[in-house]
Amino acid sequence: MTSQRNLGKNTQAIHAGEARTSTTEKSGIPLLPPIYQNSTFRFTTAAECAEAFRDEESGYVYTRWGNPTQEVLEKKLAVLEAGEDALATASGMGAVSTALLTALAEGGHVVAMENLYSATFQILNEELQRFGIETTFVDATDTAQIERAIRDDTKVLYLESPTNPLLKLIDLRASAEIAKAHGLTSIIDNTFATPCGQQPIALGIDVVVHSMTKYLSGTGAVIAGAIIGEKEFVTRAKEGALRNFGAVISPFNAWLTLHGLTTLPLRFTRHCENAARIAAFLETHPAIAWVRYPGLPSHPQHELAEHQMEAFGGMITLELKGGRTAGEHLVDRLQLCSLAVSLGDVRTLICHPASTTHSHVPAEIRQQIGVTDGLVRISVGLEDTDDIIADLEQALQSHTS
Ligand code: LCS
Question: Which position among 85, 171, 189, 206 bears the catalytic label?
Fold first, then answer.
């Protein structure tokens, strides 16, 4: 495994975690890791079964506790995110909740970025509150605000960068240093950047979570999530919150994600190339007030993006001059791009966060964090860029003309 960490990203995505030697006496190893679509495992003796219960490393017992297909995926994820160990989960929210439940104890306190995926915001703002765990939301683009919000009982620093949907960036190295100095567990949702766009663990962050529903699986076929971090944390998550609360990934979804991951670096490069061209086109369009893309020099934190990101991703956010009406008009007229939530798909997906992904966030908080009514989010797909631009152009023109 150690040597796999020195390989290139494409090689890691294809080979890491996969068997090179046969586990049976027969020769011929399946080139694709097989799918173990079973809930339980049979033992031949009581002693063998008891041993598997005593020592978890010694064998598979029950798929909620572990499954060979899931474990190949987890080994690949750990290598790609440069973490010691990884855990696959049933969804991105399964990863977020499992990571938080593992890092927190009764009555603790969280400092979190104010602009987060809406369900994560709800977990922190509502669900955990019910158990006496408070969260202070700050604009973590200003790291001084993180430091100021830390209390004696703070246990976790929770971040997203780039954020959903505003593509704000947080200085991860500086944030990780603050967390370390105060003994906090730092957690980042790396869904938008992927391990190809930024490597938070190498920048000092403790735990990475993902919605693998997005770029990591890549084809829009699964709901899945992941946690990557130190072995001690991942083991606690696996043997505690994941197993007992039950957000385990199904073998089939683990298998689909595993194969999606093999093309992640290739896909991500193309997502980034397409997004860069489309962002530049949109920025010059008269119907658009502003465009936000970390790779554009006009992004307020472009310098930080260049410093901490290896690639700028496939997400673009823009504000239409005509507000909500113009936003609805745009999405109604698209012919190639799809009006859909989610992101990281091979297809270009466009959504209107105020009425969809962030509709559960109270209007005044939406306004405060910048999720305005004219905001449109584009997840740039892998189609030919000229075709995406032509579709956007005709949809925008029919409104302005
Ligand atoms: N984290 C981020 C940054 C997300 O964007 C999402 C879902 C999740 C976690 C949750 O992942 P899930 O449980 O759905 O796998 N984001 C969505 C979005 O922007 N549109 O639809 C879903």
Answer: 189
